[in-house]
Amino acid sequence: MGTIINHVAKTKKLGEVLIDAGLLNPTNLENALTEAKKRNMRLGNALLSLGILSEDKILDALSSQLSLRKIDLSKTIVDPAIGKLVPERLARQFKMVPVTMVGDVLTVALSDPLNVFALDALKRDVNANIEVALSNEKDILRAINYVWTAKEVSKAAAGQTVVSADAFNFGAGGGRQIAPETGQPGSFASPASAGTAQKGESADDVNIIKLVNLIIFSGAKNRASDIHIEPLEDEIIVRERIDGDLIKTKEIPIQLLNSIIARIKIMANMDIAEKRNPQDSRFDINVGEKNLDVRVSVVPTINGEKVVFRLLDKSSKVAKVSESSLDKNDKDKILKIIYKKYGLFLISGPTGSGKTTTAYSVISELNDIRKNIITVEDPVEYKMRYVNQIEVNQKGGVGFADALRAVLRQDPDIILVGEIRDEETARIAIQAALTGHFVVSTIHTQDASSAVSRLIDMGIEPFLVSSSIAGIIGQRLIKKLCDSCKKPYTPEPELLKEFDINPAGKYTFYKETGCDLCRDTGFHGRLSIQEILVPTKNIQKLIIEKADSTQIRSQAIKEGFIPLRIAGLKKLIEGVTTLEEVLQATQDI
Question: Which terminus of the chain is more solvent-facing, meaning fewer CB atoms within 10 Å of its CB: N or C?
Fold first, then answer.
């Protein structure tokens, strides 16, 4: 037996709720009740039929008056494994669909939360704590159809390679039909006959929508940062970037390419007719509890247009530096730097090394209602309360330097500059740091000491660099071993000596093996390793003398600086990564 945790008042009727909300008068209510009785329908449908109220207004009133959450199912992909927790017969009868399961609480979207028969059915047939939420009837029916016809989605959620898109019965363009339960050739009820197609949509249209949803759903479930939809000569392949590596997850008939691209362009509000030039856009979509900001890039290739999705989870929170998984010594060093009143704090590393995440972690740590924090980003990746975030518009002619000049007239205390790319941006950031502001930014260099040389190469005077820098982080991401399948082993003694590790030392080293949890890769997740350079008087003197990065690095090591490779070896000895991962991440330093 289930329990509804946000009880809906049993004595309150829809008419009373709408009158209390000021949306109905007694005359309109009486007319609607007469219509409902005459046509044997519920009051809500009668109000819609007579054009007295729209469904959105009714839902808004119910949400406000009954304190119920409203869910936009048109931007939500429902996990079929969750959706099937309510039997299909009840879902269709009462127009309700489970949306998420968090802990022991199942959130169920209904179009009519005052239907006591629907609530009794939920309590009787669902063994969970139930949170009632609101959504409009059309979107609920779409979600129900998706749950009960998208047979292959649950496999994608489990990280398995999905039977090719033929399984969705794409008609003449999709090749043979495959029975969804067996994966073997056969036939099954078409989506149209299953009630999937909505007015104005063909079965093929609906199946393309399902397929694109499936691709996004799979990527979100597999923790992918990017999804590549790539046309080859004879097929389309889908690859997901997971923990830094691209993994092929699906193969789709090439005949579906134009339909898939068209669907994606509609979702991203792109020009469907434009096929010769690259296009960039974005859209929002919900996948379970994840609220995804999907950045879309479409480029023409010799085999057709290729799409790349960048998935950004807007519902995730960036950990503060003090709450992160960094070593305590690294945390203490960073905190000591960022709580200075002014100065330039740089985060360096190649593309994909986690610089932006670290920058957000710093801003999250410093975030305070008493401070005016302004960011200039391209694009804004995570929204933060109390932080004024500005997205640069390169196409509109507003770059980092232009936005940064405007920011300095906004009385800032702390400024985040997404990236220092040119002399103008670097000069403004350094001037801001020297005039009483704390500035955080990223820069593309191989290590911390090279960031100094890069600024000087841009044309910044060495004495300005020396006096403005509060600290520099050099950073890399390394893959974490899967705790479920990692196995101890003994590396070759020569390899250990190369890393200055005593082969006779009492260390336990691990290597990857592979299991279902990690998709047979042996790795699950990534972590950052960092080197932290704090300019001392000796280092400041070397900067003014235009010493190269090697000299600066050597002096820093003499003064206690811990290089990236040593930081990586610490993780190796802790048993969380492999020798090869550390070598690969630090081979260019």
Answer: N
Q: Output the six-digit token pair for 79.
A: 């996990």
53, pLDDT greater than 90: no
In sequence order, what are the residues at sequence separation of 6 or more whose Cβ sits closer than 8 angstroms to the Cβ of residue 505?
Answer: none
Angle between the N-to-C axes of helices 137-149 and 203-221, in degrees from 0 to 180, rounded to the nearest 10: 80
Among 502, 533, 532, 527, which Cα is nearest to 585's? 527
The closest alpha carbon to 145, from 201, 70, 229, 227, belongs to 201
| 339 or 507: which leads in pLDDT | 339
Tell me the backbone φ, ψ of residue 432, rounded to 5 degrees: -65, -40
Q: Which of 164, 172, 173, 163 is nearest to 255 (CA)?
A: 173
> Token match 């067996």: residue?
182
Cα(178)–Cα(516) distance, integer angstroms: 25
Strands 438-443 and 414-417: parallel
- Averaged pLDDT, 153-169: 37
One-letter amino acid of 466: S
| % of the chain exceeding 90 in pLDDT | 51
Indicate the pLDDT class of residue 157, thresholds 50, 70 and 90: very low
State the Rg of the chain over Cα.
29
Q: Which helix (H) or strand (E) holds 213?
A: helix 203-221
Among 412, 436, 416, CA closest to 425 = 416
In sequence order, which residues have a C-beta less than 8 Å from that of residue 28 and are 6 or more positions away? 52
Neighbours of 328 (CB within 10 A): 7
Task: Kindly report, residue by residue over 218-228, the tens digit of the pLDDT.
Answer: 999 899 999 99
- The phi and psi torsions of 103 (rounded to 5 degrees) equal 65, -125
SS3 of 173, please? helix
Say if CB 311 and CB 292 are below 8 A apart: yes
* 65: exposed, middle or buried (Cβ count in 10 Å: 0-12, 13-18, 19+): middle
User: What count of residues does the chain have?
Assistant: 589
Q: Which of 27-41, 169-183, 293-307 has the highest mean pLDDT?
A: 293-307
**579/565 Cα distance (integer angstroms):** 11
Q: What's the pLDDT score for residue 540?
A: 96
Query: Scanning the structure block, which residue is given the tokens 């039997």?
Result: 87
Which pair of structure tokens corresponds to residue 273?
Answer: 């007719």
Place of tokens 């119910």: 62
Look at 69-78, 169-178, 235-244, 512-521 and tell me which has the smallest mean pLDDT: 169-178
Range from 39-48, 168-177, 452-461 carrying the lowest mean pLDDT = 168-177
Instruction: Report the Cα 504 to chain-centroid distance in Å.
Output: 44
Residue among 422, 416, 493 nearest 460 (CA)? 422
* Buried/exposed code over 459-473 (b: 16+ C-beta within 10 A; e: otherwise): ebebebbbbbbbbbb
Residue 4 pairs with which residues in a beta bridge?
130
Judging by beta carbons within 10 Å of its beta carbon (0-12, 13-18, 19+), is residue 288 exposed, middle or buried?
A: buried
Tokens matching residue 52: 């007295």
The pTM assigned to this predicted structure is 0.72
* Closest of 86, 96, 101, 217 to residue 152, by C-alpha: 217
pLDDT for the residue 64: 79
**pLDDT attached to residue 210:** 84
Check: CB of residue 133 under 8 Å from CB of residue 110: yes
Helix, strand, coil percent content, the chain, rounded in steps of 5: 40, 25, 40
120 DSSP assignment:
H
